[in-house]
Amino acid sequence: MSRVFEPEHWMVVLPPYLGWRAAGQGGAWWGVVAAVLAGVAPAVFLAVGARRGRWGSGLRVRQERLIAIPGLLLVLAGALVVLYGVGAPGEVAALVSAMVAVIVAGAAVTWVWKVSAHAAVSGCAAAVLVIVWRPRTAGSGIALALALGVLVVVVAWSRVRLKCHTRAQVAVGALLGLVLGGTVFAGLR
Predict the structure, then answer these.
(1) What is the Cα Rg of the chain in Å?
(2) How far from 155 is each of 63, 119, 170, CA to CA, in Å?
(3) Residue 160 lies in a domain
(4) Is the model more confident about 5 or about 87?
(5) Closest Cα partner for 172 from 101, 129, 115?
(6) Is the pLDDT of residue 1 over 80?
């Protein structure tokens, strides 16, 4: 489950979907651009750094994260400059902004403690999906939130099960993604 819901996978799948919802086929193409800039490019950056021995695969050691995060944030800042500069649909740019906010907050925590990026990005994705799907009834909204909540819990559980994080680290990550990511997305879209 952890491999399926890697942070970069969320950032490859969600932007085209949000672009399509916001602006049809043209928006979906903007979503593809965002997926390349904010999903593929960061994954390539991390893979190249790992291959060159700058950090380990998966950034499991907190100190390795401190080395990788500044470069990762530069890649994502470039994505934001392009998306806002060329007028990508608001929901696409807001998603990337929300994920960057979550990564920045996670980076701040990383100076003293290791928080789960998988749980944080999954939590942010769940918050974004609840916001954009706008359930018509309270019951369907609760069902959607519960289903996405279960997904976040399963991703978090997988990180604990793989001994990558403690329960506290995944809980903080999930809350960070849900609250901060959801708030930033809702405010910018």
Answers:
(1) 16
(2) 23, 6, 9
(3) yes
(4) 87
(5) 115
(6) no
What's the CA gap between 159 and 7, in Å, rounded? 13
In a domain, 1, yes or no: no
Residue 17 CA to residue 9 CA, distance in Å, equals 13
Please give the tally of structural domains in the chain: 1
Q: Is residue 2 part of a domain?
A: no
CB-CB contact of 62 with 114 (8 Å) = yes
Alpha-carbon distances, residue 143 vs 36, 133, 148, 150 (angstroms): 32, 12, 9, 11
> Token pair of 129, please?
């999906």
Range of the domain at 49: 7-188
The verdict on pTM exceeding 0.85 is yes
Looking from the CA of 63 toward its CB, the CA atoms found within 13 Å total 1
Q: Return d(Cα 131, Cα 128) in angstroms, integer.
A: 5
CA distance readout (Å), 95 to 34, 151, 162 = 9, 19, 28
Which H or E element spans position 126?
A: helix 117-133
Q: pLDDT band at 21, cuts 50/70/90?
A: very high
